[in-house]
Amino acid sequence: MSKLTSLAAWIRPSDSQKKADFQARLRPHSRALYQTAFRLTGNQADAEDLTQELFLRLYQKWDHWHHLDNPLPWFLRTLTNLHIDTYRKIRHTHGANELTSNFDHLPFQVPALDSASPLALALANSRKCLLNQALNSLEAEHRSLVVLHLMEGYSLQEVAEIQHLPLGTLKSRLHRCKDKLKKILLREPFQENLRFNRVSSQED
Amino acid sequence: MKCIDAQRQLEHLDLQQQPGALLAEHLENCNECLSFHQDHQLQLHLQSFRVIGPDPDFINKALNAACQEPSIQPRKWTWPASMAASFVLVALLLTGWLVSNEPTNPLPATPLQVDSSQPEGQSTQQVRILIISDQDYSDAEISLALAGNLQLEGYANQRELTWRTQLKAGQNLLTLPIQVLEQGGELQVSSRFGDQKHQVIVNLEDIRS
After folding, report:
1. ipTM strictly over 0.85?
2. Long-range contacts of A99-106 (CB under 8 A, 24+ apart)
3. A31 vs chain B: nearest CA distance in angstroms?
4. What is the domain class of B83-204 according to CATH?
5. Closest CB from A12, A55, A146 relative to B173
6. Per mean pLDDT, which range of A128-132, A142-146, A165-169, B38-42 is the poorest?
7. From B43, B48, B142, residue closest to A131, measured CB to CB
8. Residue A10 and residue B43: Cβ atoms within 8 Å?
9. Of B52, B63, B106, B118, which is the most exposed, with the fewest CB atoms less than 10 Å away?
């Protein structure tokens, strides 16, 4: 009789009620999902496209998640899988790391900084470009781990559940991601010989 | 300098600040604190990532657009649009599903409806049972009894099936893929919640014949 438990999934709301239920269940998570999509893609246009595609997929897969008490891990797994698919398609047709780089320099991507000096703005923009460069250097699968754990703040256990990864695998992948990010983000701005020359010239 | 003091100071550095001389000297000789410092700096970089919000109406539009798209059903559940006209109302039964506490009372609406469709050239009929419920039920019991010439797809050897499921307040749709063989037969659908029991008996015939 255990086979019959799957029959419970066959009963579902009618279309009109399904739409209402779908929106009621998804709306509380929609902003958070968009935010994660933005961190995965790096820009507003791609984040909106990814979010729209996610909503479509979730509506189509309503029967898979509507009975879950907490569907957020299911949403996030779908979101990251969609992003990975998109990343692979783009890499296949255009080469790696072209997801967002074409739009990174556009002014509408620069957030408004209240009372920021030109120097602060320049530094912020410089750091933003460096951060985008570092995140874009990661494979989509690895970026999603960084986004979920280091940026969104999900615990290792939660990320392991979302990504269906063993905890040990997750930890080792995150370790490699952090090393890669550190090499880009924390590198010295000048090579050692140049640094020495600058100090020497000041002393002279 | 002790590591605990060094790490306390490092926690207060932002991305633009450099460690002081004493702290820098400690970092040169202490790998643990250096690693702590680098982790902290990395975290600050990642936290500096600013998310630009979506267009004001984006969420509403995206949610509505998602509902406009036709749902993708598994292949075995679909049928051609041209066959939509072949819907045949098989049975309509009124039961005391709604407000009545007395099973014999008639209902103000049609809480249980059944219809079916049969794609051209196939023996499987999609039998749809619409249950209108007055409230959420967590443990409604659904039972099927199939006559000899009817089979529920995927459950070829089961003549009787019973399972528990949730019902939501409002309309609930139960779609059953029933294979109709030879002359067809009688499908009995029963539901039970608390003291109330309801039953629908549907005669299914092979529309191809």
Report:
1. no
2. A99/A41, A99/A42, A99/A46, A99/A136, A100/A41, A100/A42, A100/A43, A100/A46, A100/A132, A100/A136, A101/A132, A101/A136, A103/A43, A103/A45, A104/A42, A104/A43, A104/A129, A104/A132, A105/A129
3. 8
4. mainly beta
5. A12
6. A128-132
7. B48
8. no
9. B106
